[in-house]
Amino acid sequence: MSHVARRPAWHCDTCDQSWPCDAARRTLLAEYGDDRLALAVYLAALQAEAAGQLVGEDPLTLRARFLGWTRRGGSPRTSPSPSS
Ligand SMILES: [Zn+2]
After folding, report:
1. How far is the CA of 82 from the centre of ligand 1 (A)?
2. What Rg do the C-alpha atoms of the chain give, in angstroms?
3. Could you read off the pLDDT of 6-45 as tens digits, one per residue?
Protein backbone atom coordinates (compact mmCIF):
# COMPACT_ATOMS: atom_id res chain seq x y z
CA MET A 1 0.00 0.00 0.00
CA SER A 2 1.31 3.45 -0.86
CA HIS A 3 0.61 6.86 0.61
CA VAL A 4 0.85 5.69 4.20
CA ALA A 5 1.92 7.85 7.14
CA ARG A 6 5.61 7.83 7.96
CA ARG A 7 5.89 8.16 11.70
CA PRO A 8 6.78 10.08 13.74
CA ALA A 9 6.77 12.99 11.27
CA TRP A 10 3.37 12.03 9.84
CA HIS A 11 4.39 12.79 6.29
CA CYS A 12 3.27 10.59 3.43
CA ASP A 13 5.88 7.93 2.57
CA THR A 14 5.12 8.36 -1.13
CA CYS A 15 4.53 12.04 -1.89
CA ASP A 16 5.90 13.60 1.32
CA GLN A 17 2.84 15.77 1.95
CA SER A 18 1.42 16.06 5.43
CA TRP A 19 -0.57 12.87 6.02
CA PRO A 20 -3.33 12.23 5.10
CA CYS A 21 -2.31 13.52 1.67
CA ASP A 22 -4.80 13.90 -1.16
CA ALA A 23 -4.12 10.40 -2.46
CA ALA A 24 -4.47 8.88 1.02
CA ARG A 25 -7.78 10.71 1.51
CA ARG A 26 -9.09 9.37 -1.77
CA THR A 27 -7.98 5.85 -0.81
CA LEU A 28 -9.64 6.10 2.60
CA LEU A 29 -12.86 7.44 1.10
CA ALA A 30 -12.89 4.57 -1.39
CA GLU A 31 -12.19 2.05 1.39
CA TYR A 32 -14.83 3.28 3.77
CA GLY A 33 -17.40 4.36 1.21
CA ASP A 34 -20.51 5.66 2.93
CA ASP A 35 -19.38 4.53 6.36
CA ARG A 36 -18.09 7.94 7.41
CA LEU A 37 -18.52 7.11 11.08
CA ALA A 38 -16.07 4.21 10.88
CA LEU A 39 -13.69 6.41 8.91
CA ALA A 40 -13.93 9.13 11.56
CA VAL A 41 -13.29 6.62 14.35
CA TYR A 42 -10.23 5.29 12.51
CA LEU A 43 -8.87 8.78 11.85
CA ALA A 44 -9.56 9.90 15.42
CA ALA A 45 -7.37 7.05 16.66
CA LEU A 46 -4.60 8.09 14.26
CA GLN A 47 -5.01 11.70 15.32
CA ALA A 48 -4.53 10.70 18.94
CA GLU A 49 -1.38 8.79 18.02
CA ALA A 50 -0.07 11.73 15.99
CA ALA A 51 -0.80 14.16 18.81
CA GLY A 52 1.55 12.15 21.00
CA GLN A 53 4.33 12.35 18.41
CA LEU A 54 3.85 15.80 16.91
CA VAL A 55 4.65 17.66 20.10
CA GLY A 56 3.69 21.32 19.92
CA GLU A 57 1.20 20.85 17.09
CA ASP A 58 -2.05 22.72 17.68
CA PRO A 59 -4.76 20.13 18.55
CA LEU A 60 -7.34 22.02 16.50
CA THR A 61 -5.04 22.01 13.49
CA LEU A 62 -4.50 18.29 13.93
CA ARG A 63 -8.21 17.70 14.20
CA ALA A 64 -8.88 19.63 11.00
CA ARG A 65 -6.08 17.76 9.26
CA PHE A 66 -7.23 14.29 10.25
CA LEU A 67 -10.98 14.72 10.51
CA GLY A 68 -11.98 18.03 8.93
CA TRP A 69 -12.08 16.64 5.39
CA THR A 70 -14.24 13.60 6.11
CA ARG A 71 -17.56 15.37 6.10
CA ARG A 72 -19.68 14.64 3.10
CA GLY A 73 -19.22 17.23 0.36
CA GLY A 74 -16.05 18.54 1.95
CA SER A 75 -17.88 21.48 3.48
CA PRO A 76 -17.89 22.20 7.22
CA ARG A 77 -21.59 23.06 6.98
CA THR A 78 -24.10 20.40 6.09
CA SER A 79 -27.03 21.47 4.02
CA PRO A 80 -30.51 20.41 5.06
CA SER A 81 -32.10 17.39 3.48
CA PRO A 82 -33.43 18.16 -0.02
CA SER A 83 -36.69 16.36 0.72
CA SER A 84 -39.45 18.57 2.04
ZN1 LIG B 1 0.85 10.72 -0.48
Report:
1. 35
2. 14
3. 999 999 999 999 999 999 999 999 999 999 999 999 999 9
| The model's pTM | 0.80
Domain extent at residue 21:
5-67
55 phi and psi angles, rounded to 5 deg: -65, 130
Q: Are 21 and 3 in contact (CB under 8 A)?
A: yes
Residue-wise pLDDT tens digits, 55-76: 999 999 999 999 999 986 544 4
Query: What is the total count of domains within the chain?
Result: 1
Cα(35) to centroid of ligand 1, in Å?
22
Measured CA to CA, the distance from residue 24 to residue 4 in angstroms comes to 7
The alpha carbon of 83 and the centre of ligand 1 are apart by a number of angstroms equal to: 38
Tell me whether residue 59 is in a domain.
yes
